[in-house]
Amino acid sequence: MDTSSPSNADFQLARLAGAIAEPARARMLSCLMDGHARTATELAAVAEVAASTASAHLARLKEERLVELLVQGKHRYFRLAGDNVAAALESLMVVAGAPRVAEFKPSTPSRLRTARTCYDHMAGTAGVALHDRLHAQGWLSGLQSGSYELTAEGAIALESLGVEIDAVRRSRRRFACACLDWSERRPHLGGALGAAWLQLSLRRGWVRQALDGRELTLTPKAQREMPELFA
């Protein structure tokens, strides 16, 4: 079939509009506009439908490539499928005169939400902020794919700070990847590079780890020495 033909474009537009038009699905999409991923159970509550009904709605949204599924261990999360989906929904919400999406409010205790370990790398608001700043600095590529690689500038920068990049690459695990943060529902840096970064941060005194748990504390030294990443 010629997917570029006007008639096919009309058909695809009608399918897409039909997927968005159902009130429960529209509520789910609106909820995901804040950039945070959510479980099917959470989206069922937002849409005010039963879990089985929510699953059917999410299957339809996934089929139309409006949402994507993220599997994190035993957990399954949904988020918007991309910036183009968010932009289209934003435009429709403006035309509809819809109110702003309510702010995401995690239930994680504040001491753990700020900074903590996620297995062997940094998580929490500090971990998510670090992830975003590494990309903003141009040190990591692959933001859309979720499988990251160091740029030439990033490799030089991290080597100069003390990360042994060759040793990180030799480890028997993914080099660097997006790890969905369970409190923020946005990605932090995982993989071997994420683990190496946490160990470097501990050695350099940029973070301190609690003796009896996962809590991390950012130190004033981190903000003095690496304000571009920790400020």
Q: Please, could you describe this protein's structure?
A:
- The chain is an alpha+beta fold and 231 residues long.
- The chain has helices spanning 6-21, 23-31, 40-47, 51-63, 83-96, 110-114, 124-136, 152-161, 165-170, 191-203, 220-225, 227-230, and strands at 67-72, 75-80, 116-118, 121-123, 140-141, 149-150, 177-180, 187-190, 207-209, 216-218.
- Strands 1-2 form a two-stranded antiparallel ribbon. A two-stranded antiparallel ribbon has the order 3-4.
- β5 and β6 (149-150) form a beta hairpin.
- α3 (40-47) packs across α4.
- The protein is elongated and about 55 Å long.
Please estimate the helix content.
40-55%
Structural class: alpha+beta
SSE sequence, one letter per element? HHHHEEHHEEHEEHHEEHEEHH
Overall 3D geometry?
A: elongated
Mean pLDDT: 88
Strand content: 15-25%
Low-confidence stretches: none
End-to-end CA span: 53 Å
Q: Tally the helices: what do you get? A: 12
The Cα radius of gyration reads: 20 Å
Strand order of the largest sheet: 1-2
Extended strand count = 10
Largest sheet: 2 strands, antiparallel
Quickly describe the structure.
The chain has helices spanning 6-21, 23-31, 40-47, 51-63, 83-96, 110-114, 124-136, 152-161, 165-170, 191-203, 220-225, 227-230; strands spanning 67-72, 75-80, 116-118, 121-123, 140-141, 149-150, 177-180, 187-190, 207-209, 216-218. With 231 residues, the protein is an alpha+beta fold.
